Structures are given as structure tokens and as C-alpha cells.
């Protein structure tokens, strides 16, 4: 397996020094946000990770290699290029074998992080069960990855482009812990609240780190969702954003958008309908996740090294 994996100099050094490392995904850069905001977000997030005592490892596929940690030029490439595949579990081998440029989704970033022995991963939001999945069967591969791969994902919950009730049901069936950090309910990405109460919440990063350590020492395979609400000052008005999401979902249906194109289409549409306000919220919540996720990575690293 090692022949396919390439650590950046910064990540290699962090490994040698036993420092905490935080995995970051690249689909959020290539397919989740427009240029140049995407590259600026990626750089700022990496800096936040460093400022909080950990080392960032943005993951992507380049020229037949799984890169764990990107250079600044590579971040720019993934933000700018129109020729980047969105790589989920099913696509990974083909994109590596054919030496294409690939941006990793939450699912694939988890796979690659585990290969590189990185346990904590920060992103914006996870994929989930889409609205209407009872007929389309559109359920993100992120959920099955969370069931089988030992990486914790720090995110701001899931967007209500998804069916949050079904997403939580699915995670429960698959045995994936959803841990609320400073929240009793599942946050809904652009907003702090939803009607869904979580069954484990804590205000302590140390307790989350201890829980992850215990889970994996018990050989309970699979990841965990660490649900970290968007900061109050950046949260969007619930009725406003939910109205927009409903319109965006309707347009996706009318246009017959399906499969891997659905999530990028909806994100772009929501940005357009909010005149960019959703993008600002999205960037702020990722930055907050980077701070919390780095603190978690440091705490977890101190317990396990
Ligand atoms: N949610 C976001 N931004 C994103 C994604 C989700 O707010 O960029 C990306 C992540 O990479 C996630 C993927 O893994 O979309 C889910 O895609 P799908 O629904 O096709 O599984
Ligand atoms: Mn899907």
C-alpha cells in the first residue's frame, strides 16, 4: 500500500516528532466552493490548525499518488482546475491507477487518513441521506464509511439539503456515535439547531478524546461524528435558509440532477440564491471546526502516544 502514499514534508516531520495531525478534505475545495474563496479558505484552515498546535494534512490524489499534505501550489491547483474528479470510495482505485487529479470526499478522506494513521479529520459538513431517498436511494457513501473506518469527523452537522431524521437513523443503525460538542441537538450546518436531540453531548474536548480512545481500544470499528455548531454570530436565519434550500432541492429535481452532482449543484445554487451569504457562513463554520478539531487532535494525541 505504501507505494501509493506520499506524505508532505510537513506531515512527515510531524510524524517523526509525534505531533498531532489533522486530516482535511479536498472535495470541499474543488467542488464545494468557488475559486478563489476555496483556496483562501483552505489556506486559512491550515493556518488555524497550526495555530492550535497540530499539523494540517489536506488529502488529494495527484499523478497516481495519495497525497497526505499538499503544497501551496497544489492547494491552488485544486481550487482552480476544472479537471478534478470527485473521488468517493468507488472511484479511488481508478483515479489512482489512471493518474488523474482527484479531490477526496469525506468518505475517501477517511480512507486515506486511516492509511496514513491519522485519526482526526476536520471538514464542513458530511453527506447523508438525501431528501426523497426513499425513491432515489441517494445515500452518501460518507455514512457507510463512518460505519467502517476509524476516523473521527469534526463537522457542523449536516445540511438540510439532506433528510436529517433519516441521516440520524442510518447512523444509528450503523452504530456511528454522533457526539454533540457544546450542543444538545444536531446542528444543521448553516444554523445551530435542529429538532433532533443527540444522545451524547459534552462541553469537554478531553471527554471526546477519551471516548474515541475507548471506542477504538474496545475494537468498536468505525468513526464518529463530532457535531460542532456554527458560531452564533455567523449562523443564518433558519426560516430564510430553509426556504432557499427547499427551492434549490426543487430545482435539482426539475433539472434531473442526480448522483455525485447533486451535492455540488445544491451548494452552488444555495450560494447563488443567498447572494453569497451561504458561502460566508460555510467558510466560518469550517474555520471553527478547524479550531475545535485541532484541539481534539492534540488531546487525542497526548492520550495515545
Ligand atoms: N457538504 C458541504 N460541502 C461539501 C460536501 C458536503 O457542505 O463540499 C462534500 C463532501 O466532500 C462530502 C460530499 O463528502 O460533498 C458528499 O457528496 P455526496 O452527497 O455525493 O456523497
Ligand atoms: Mn449521493
TrEMBL record:
Reactions catalysed, semicolon-separated, are:
D-ribose 5-phosphate + uracil = psi-UMP + H2O
Provide this UniProt record's keywords sorted from A to Z: Glycosidase, Hydrolase, Lyase, Manganese, Metal-binding
Q: Which prosthetic group or cofactor does it need?
A: Mn(2+)
Identify which top EC class this enzyme belongs to.
Answer: lyase
Binding-site list for Mn(2+): 138
Q: Name one GO biological process term.
A: nucleobase catabolic process
A UniProt-annotated Pfam family: Indigoidine_A
Q: Which InterPro entries match?
A: Indigdn_synthA-like (IPR022830), PsuG (IPR007342)
Entry GO MF terms:
hydrolase activity, acting on glycosyl bonds; metal ion binding; pseudouridylate synthase activity
Determine if Lyase is one of this entry's keywords. yes
Cofactor note as given? Binds 1 Mn(2+) ion per subunit.
> For this UniProt entry, which segments traverse the membrane?
none
Q: Which SUPFAM superfamilies match?
A: Indigoidine synthase A-like
GO CC, alphabetical: cytoplasm
- As recorded in UniProt, its EC number(s) are 4.2.1.70
Positions contributing to substrate binding: 86, 106, 140-142
Catalytic positions?
25, 159
Explain the purpose of this protein: Catalyzes the reversible cleavage of pseudouridine 5'-phosphate (PsiMP) to ribose 5-phosphate and uracil. Functions biologically in the cleavage direction, as part of a pseudouridine degradation pathway.
Quaternary structure and interacting proteins, as annotated: Homotrimer.
Recorded family membership:
Belongs to the pseudouridine-5'-phosphate glycosidase family.
In its UniProt entry, what is this protein called?
A: Pseudouridine-5'-phosphate glycosidase
Native source species: Neobacillus piezotolerans
- Give the taxonomic lineage as stored in the record: Bacteria, Bacillati, Bacillota, Bacilli, Bacillales
